[in-house]
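Before surveying the methods themselves, let us examine one representative protein, pairing a chain with its fold in token form.
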Amino acid sequence: VLHGGAQSNRIGGDPQTGSAPIGQGNLISNNGGNGIALLDSGTSDNVISGNRIGSDLSGTQAWGNHAHGIEFNGASDNLVEGNLISGNFVGGVDLCCTPETRANVIRANHIGTDLSGSAPLPNQAMGVYVQHGATANTIGPDNVIAYNGSAGIEVWGGRSPANTITRNSIHDNQGNGITLWGENIDLLPVPVVTSFDRDAGSISGLACPDCLVEVFSDPNNEGQLFEGEVRADANGTFALAKGAAFAGPHVTATTTDAVGATSMFSTPTVGVRSVALQLDNPHPYTRVTSRPSADLADNFIATTIQGPWVIKNGMADAYILNQLGVKRANILMNDPDSNLLVWEEPETVIHPVFDTFVSGLVEMGITPTYDLTFWDKDAHGGVAPSPAPRFKTEEEIARYLDFVRLIVGSFGDRVDCYEIFNEPSYANSYQWIEVEDYINLAKRAIPLIRELDPGARIAVGSFHGWDDGYYQQYLYRVLQSDLMPLVDVVSWHPYIGVLTNPECGQDFYYRYEPILEEIKALATANGFSGEFRALELHWSTPDVQPGNPCTCYDRTCAKYYMRGITLHRAHEVATGYVLSDPASTRALQTIATLMAEAHSADLGAQVDSPAPALKVFGFAYPSGEKLLALWSDQPVTDEDPAFTATVRLPGAAGAQVSAIDPLGGCEQALVTHADGADLVVENLQLHDYPLFLRVQ
């Protein structure tokens, strides 16, 4: 530990000087806390080099330190160079907790690899944390940050500005290569790649004005191989010609601004070269600007935040949700699913951090729906019972109603809607409620909620599991019951599948659209006149769920999310998703802005294209502006297939039309011509995800 203003010390040295195998270096492993800590203001000008921190002597096995490999808290102007920092129980390096943690340099280390730099020896969490105010530190050049159990580098928690990440090899981490989260989510937007040719080694796009753009190749979505750098011009336009092919297979980029803050990696390219939005279009690209929730009208898009640990750990808060652009949030303080239950965590105590979170949502203009899921933990003494259908006795129902009183009484001044249980049809689990018992429970809870909070809306549903006819029939029985005139919202979790694997919902995906309309018709026929919600759209990546055949590459997941949200809004169904990967997050931010105040409309569009399974949906805004969504609904692939299309918009001659690519993050004015009263767009390039035409 170096603290209290310790200066000009060296821990380690040249591993080639002195006795083998680590010479002047030290073996710093198997400690009960951090391996090395540099603490307090004035602790500066120290050097940590040539050590093995968390590994065994050979640098091939994990011994670990029980916290971070190296922790900085208040120390400044120190150098960490040439160390192996791997196998630690939390992160490799932690730059933490105060703006006085500043001007430290982390360079030429192996973080998460073995001594060779090529084999995994992961830290269990992030490779490098930068958090809660640490500022003006430099990570790079020449670090190898790979194979860690979460992000390679994560800048999170309180605002931590001006931290530079430069010329590293970042790859194969279980999370993102670089994550900006918490109050840093909007620190700096990623570069937008508008054109590239992998074989020619050329790339161009949009970044912040006068910012430095670093380009990388990677097998996935990080930055394994540094390819070159270029500075954007005063308009933010950049172009790099390497003079040789990029290694690929994917190309990503980061940008660093004038004060030294570095962005996340851009959405990775796919294929050998880019596909234009419209062939032979001379107009420049512009960056799509997404707006926060507080600045948007309702877009009928929600995200789901479940359990106090999500809030306590900084994974989600009102600030983050505001930047995502969602206008609704499905929340609960309790555990969401029986397989995630922590029986020791009380469910009848209102956590102050959660209470603050709910107030923050309202301040940001985000409407909360509270999921009234109750596990009856006190009745079971904090011990999990055997799975059995719930709410068979009056005693258990009475305890549920007491729970409803507590939650509605605590949050009724801020919560708009209450949902009666999460996924009650989940058979052979502790959240299972047989359908007639569920209907009875809802009938008992509804008048109580109306009494306690007369203005609240009430939802039934959250039904799931569409791969089995039992679950669909469960929902249909509720839709046909006398609950329908009593409630304001019907919700379900469609889980509409990964299309490249027949075992992952492929068949259901292509049957889903008529089922969606059947759900609406059944409910309406039985007296329902409220809002429909298809929630918890979720696709996961292989690094989050290793071995799961129903996962997809993060850029591919983004395509599914865009399809799912656009489809539901075209059917006037509110929708929502579970927080996911960065490519999806950026696309969803764009969709959230586009869908604000948008409602389904027949624009009479005529589309001529060889694209298979063509989807065309129209939307209209109160301003009179129109939006047209088009895509090929073929099975989603990791590549970007392109299909030429001609679009005719009746009566729109003279309108201005631009194309918006939410995945690419760019917009371009289109070349059009008039044919009588109609407007015609030729040579449009459609993909297997929604392209939007904005008609003004």
